[in-house]
Automatic annotation (TrEMBL):
Residues 1-31 form the signal peptide. It comes from the Bacteria. SUPFAM superfamilies: YerB-like. This is Putative lipoprotein YerB. Residues 29-50 have a biased composition (Low complexity). Keywords: Lipoprotein, Signal. InterPro entries: DUF3048_C, DUF3048_N, YerB-like_sf. It comes from Actinomadura rubteroloni.
Length: 338
């Protein structure tokens, strides 16, 4: 899952075992997910060392990354701390619902949550960030060995209670919150994000004027509406504003709707519903929303250790607006129900 080129033979062997194990437990073909080459038009220049590779701003440069799994159903709302994230992923889980994985480095809110359990797709996404701290609550039993072998620092509630607290305002399991500062203290060697392929700058030519976009899953839908006043896309959930507990509405300067093949993994929840596996290596199409316009784009990620690059229809770099980025992962085709 990550590069061990500078390590010894034992580490290389461990990496091979981990990658093979993830491929096997995911129920998909590793060749299909990792053999694809980047687009010939993919950006090749690295971002400046003085710029946060997740946001294109100077905030958070050199600071460790904390990834947190967060509930994304009505019972969890309003969510806490998400507005402070550098990058937010929206992932499909069992039953056609979605869950967030928010990454923090620039700003650490006092609390974040509700914190929920990890999924196999998280372990396929996280290697591109180096070795971040990973906060979650619970994991399917057969996945525990894969979490242990993954290139993350496990700061889950399962691994220890420090940094977590329960709220009396909501019922379990929607009442667990994390303190990012305390969680990062449990992972003193957590790494800053490396280059993940994002490029920031003035908008490319083209794009279609767009005021709103709706992403759909079998049991959920999220909308994003352009606010010229706030210069960002305001999120909605189920047709109503997706409000932050701190005030205002969640959303980002750039929304990336990444179409990725979604299949059944070998894992399932306690009800017997199979966990979707989102294939985020290879190539595919995307819709990028920025500055009130929608751009047809292509994404490319040649391996799990590599970042994801985005290009326009002409092969030019698909630049993002500086600020919070949302990557909304939807099935490439009809909404997928395992």
């Amino acid at each position: 899952m990550r590069s061990f080129a500078r390590r010894g033979p034992a580490a290389v062997a461990g990496a091979v075992v981990l990658a093979a194990g993830l491929a096997a437990c995911s129920g998909g073909s590793p060749a299909k997910r990792t053999a694809a080459s980047p687009s010939s038009g993919a950006p090749s220049a690295s971002p400046s060392a003085a710029v946060n590779p997740l946001t294109g701003t100077r905030a958070g440069v050199g600071k460790p990354v904390l990834a947190v799994k967060i509930e994304n159903t009505r019972a969890a709302m309003p969510q806490v701390g998400v507005s402070a994230a550098d990058l937010v992923y929206v992932e499909q889980v069992e039953g056609g619902e979605t869950r967030l994985m928010a990454l923090f480095s620039s700003h650490l809110p006092a609390r974040v949550g509700p914190v929920r359990s990890a999924r196999i797709s998280d372990l396929h996404l996280l290697p591109q960030f180096g070795r971040p701290a990973f906060a979650f609550s619970g994991v399917q039993g057969k996945m525990k060995k894969h979490v242990k072998a993954a290139p993350v620092y496990d700061v889950s509630e399962d691994a220890g209670p420090k940094g977590y607290s329960r709220s009396s305002a909501k019922p379990a399991p929607y009442n667990l919150y994390g303190d990012p500062r305390d969680l990062l203290k449990r992972a003193p060697n957590a790494q800053p994000s490396k280059d993940v392929g994002f490029r920031f700058g003035p908008a490319p030519e083209g794009g279609k004027p767009t005021s709103s976009f709706t992403a759909r899953w079998p049991a959920a839908r999220m909308g994003f509406t352009w606010s010229a006043k706030q210069k960002r896309w305001l999120a909605s959930w189920g047709g109503t504003p997706d409000r932050a507990a701190e005030g205002g509405v969640l959303g980002g300067a750039t929304i990336v709707v990444q179409y990725a093949e979604t299949t059944r993994s070998r894992f399932h929840d306690f009800l017997g519903s199979y966990t979707p596996l989102i294939h985020t290596t290879g190539t595919g199409r995307a819709t990028v929303l920025r500055d009130g316009r929608a751009y047809d784009a292509r994404w490319s990620r040649p391996s799990e250790n590599a970042g994801t690059t985005f290009t326009t229809a002409t092969g030019a770099p698909m630049t993002f607006a500086s600020g919070q980025v949302w990557v909304v992962l939807v099935n490439d085709g009809k909404p997928y129900m395992p």
